UniProtKB/TrEMBL annotation:
Protein name stated in the entry: NAD-dependent epimerase/dehydratase family protein
Segments traversing the membrane: none
Species for this entry: Mucilaginibacter jinjuensis
InterPro entries from the UniProt entry: Epimerase_deHydtase (IPR001509), NAD(P)-bd_dom_sf (IPR036291), NAD(P)-dependent_oxidoreduct (IPR051783)
Domain NAD-dependent epimerase/dehydratase span(s) in chain numbering: 2-223
PANTHER family found in the cross-reference section: NAD(P)-BINDING DOMAIN-CONTAINING PROTEIN-RELATED, PROTEIN YEEZ
Pfam families from the UniProt entry: Epimerase
Length: 322
């Protein structure tokens, strides 16, 4: 039996869809308020839904019955300092529970980490799996939570767990809608006057799921893999998306000091209105960083060729233009 945590999320839904397409039965965990994605309803004969929060040890143990493979996709994503403690509890303690359950059941684990948990390289060099962020100087609470979650997996591996870790870059796809990475496309569609000087790694959600399935069914173990199709400068990305939406390209570069003012202003407005700020500190700072990722390890490990990002952009634009 295959178990997938976080199956109602953007990546989890695509992963379950691909597993079900092959005719494999899948057990999926969800919290009691989570809605089963429309895209998975037609596979109801193959999917068993169980209510099990990863922080609930007993529910998780029950969900692990007869399970031999676990895809751990569940995570809390936030960049707000106010969410630090509960997010770390969910992401780190939850992952520790999953790791322990896999050890007890003798199940193989594929843990979905994040590119946020990967460190930086010297100027002009590609970032590889050998880079790790250092918690002390990093203010990105999400990155810290994902790094510490990874550490729980490595702890499990030291105790005999059969596991691999994947670190996807920014995952894009038509099924995101206007949430998550889809919000970036929607922002450009509505009109974006500024671009930033940084770069970002991009990968299609379907490719991430394919890599995960291939790794799970391989002999690779105790390894970490960056899942990234291509590296794009934000300017090129925004211009490409704008052209495909037939809207004006952003013409002015937002300098780091401008972004500093912007996130502070957004934070002030958010504190007054009670709504989440439109721009947070971490996103503002990251937007000016050039971060290019090496995908050679995953390509060699499973012989994988990534879908061109430009094709995925076409699909996202087509879905949002409807």
């Amino acid at each position: 039996m295959i178990l997938v945590t976080g199956a109602t999320g953007f990546l989890g839904t695509e992963l379950v869809r691909q597993l079900a397409e092959t005719g494999l039965p899948v057990r999926c965990t969800r919290r009691n308020h989570s809605i089963i994605p429309q895209a998975l309803l037609k596979y109801s004969n193959l999917i068993e839904w169980v209510e099990a929060d990863i922080c609930d040890i007993f529910a998780l143990e029950a969900a692990m019955e007869l399970v031999t493979q676990v895809y751990h996709c569940a995570a809390w994503v936030s960049f707000k300092q106010a969410d630090k403690e509960p997010m770390i509890n969910t992401n780190v303690t939850g992952t520790a529970n999953v790791v322990n359950a896999c050890i007890d059941a003798g199940a193989r684990l594929l843990h979905v980490s994040s590119i946020a948990a990967v460190g930086t390289a010297k100027t002009g060099e590609l970032i590889t799996e050998k880079h790790y962020i250092e918690e002390t100087p990093v203010k990105n609470v999400y990155a810290i939570s994902k790094l510490e979650s990874e550490m729980e997996v490595w702890r499990g591996i030291a105790e005999g767990l059969d596991a691999v870790v994947v670190n996807p870059s920014l995952i894009i796809g038509a099924s995101a809608g206007t949430e998550g990475s889809g919000a970036l496309f929607e922002t450009v569609r509505k009109g974006l006057g500024f671009y930033t000087g940084g770069s970002v790694g991009l990968v299609d959600v379907a490719d991430v799921a394919r890599c995960m399935i291939a790794l799970m069914n391989s002999d690779n173990t105790a390894e970490r893999y960056i899942i990234n199709a291509e590296n794009w400068y934000y300017k090129d990305l925004f211009n490409t998306v704008a052209d495909k939406f037939h809207v004006k390209q952003p013409t002015r570069q937002a300098k780091p000091w401008m972004l500093e003012l912007a996130w502070r202003g957004a934070s002030l407005i958010g504190s007054i209105t009670g709504k989440s700020p439109s721009l947070d500190k971490i996103s503002a700072q990251s937007a000016s960083l050039v971060q290019n990722y090496d995908n050679a390890k995953i390509k060699k490990a499973i012989g994988f060729e990534f879908k061109p990002v430009d094709r995925t952009i076409d699909e996202v634009v087509a879905a949002l233009a409807v």
